[in-house]
Design brief:
Low-confidence stretches: 106-115, 222-227
Number of domains: 3
Number of helices: 8
Radius of gyration: 39 Å
Strand order of the largest sheet: 1-2
Distance between the termini: 91 Å
Length: 252
């Protein structure tokens, strides 16, 4: 009988790196924590620093447990892009895109121009997109192969619109934070007012109950107080006691 071929097992995803389960053992983690604590006790100033500081003279078998240092130039490449530690919005000129809206960086402008409205610039760019799209349709109806230039113009305008919106993000975040804090402040004020109202009501009830002869005394009867028409009590003191009693019952 022929030997049966062995069935090979294939995984959808590759196996994790070996150092994840070979190096990060409880024993090595405990040794690394001890070495880190001892080094921080000897260098308190460096331990308080926010930057990642490498522990010198660390054994080779514990080197994988130490986080890597920050890039020396503050930038690194990942996923086909360059990333920086300081998150800044690059300008259109740095990205190689033509700027279509006016700028005040390095250019002397008059006071009215320095207070330009971003919303007005966005409206102008939006109208320019519509106009260029109509021109694109007109060119495409005559010469379909000659639409590349208009397509590039539309792309440039859209990138300028996107960049203008991104420049407005910090202001948008500040306004959102102000709105959130104001909403929370109003909520706290309303809660405080409600607590104060209940506290005042409780004080009034307790002060009224304090005028009663004994705590827990049942409601006194109305005999001898003089009832008027429809069973109403004519004695003002009795009316006040009845009102306090009703408030106490309603509060409880």
């Amino acid at each position: 009988m022929a030997e049966q071929p062995q069935t090979q097992m294939f995984s959808t995803f590759p196996n994790p790196p070996d150092f994840l389960w070979k190096e990060f053992t409880p024993d090595k983690i405990a040794r690394f924590d001890e070495a880190k604590q001892a080094w921080e006790e000897q260098n308190p100033d460096a331990a308080l620093s926010k930057t990642v500081t490498l522990i010198p003279d660390l054994p080779d078998d514990l080197s994988c447990l130490q986080p890597p240092p920050e890039p020396p130039n503050g930038a690194w490449r990942a996923l086909a892009g360059v990333w920086t530690l300081k998150d800044e919005l690059p300008s259109l000129e740095e990205s190689g895109i033509q700027r279509l809206k006016p700028t005040s960086n390095g250019v002397s402008v008059s006071p009215p121009d320095s207070n330009r409205d971003r919303a007005l610039n966005l409206k102008r760019l939006t109208k320019s997109v519509l106009l260029n799209f109509l021109e694109f349709v007109g060119v495409a109806s005559i010469d379909p192969d000659g639409t590349a230039e208009k397509a590039e113009d539309i792309e440039t305008i859209l990138i300028n619109i996107h960049h203008a919106c991104n420049e407005y993000r910090p202001h948008q975040a500040k306004e959102k934070l102000i709105q959130t804090m104001q909403t929370r402040l109003d909520q706290i004020r309303n809660e405080t007012a409600a607590v104060n109202a209940v506290t005042d009501k409780a004080k009034r009830v307790l002060e009224g109950l304090g005028s009663i002869a004994a705590a827990g005394q049942e409601r006194p009867d109305l005999e001898g107080r003089g009832e008027g028409q429809n069973g109403a009590v004519d004695d003002p003191m009795a009316q006040e006691e009845d009102q306090l009693w009703n408030e106490a019952v309603a509060f409880v």
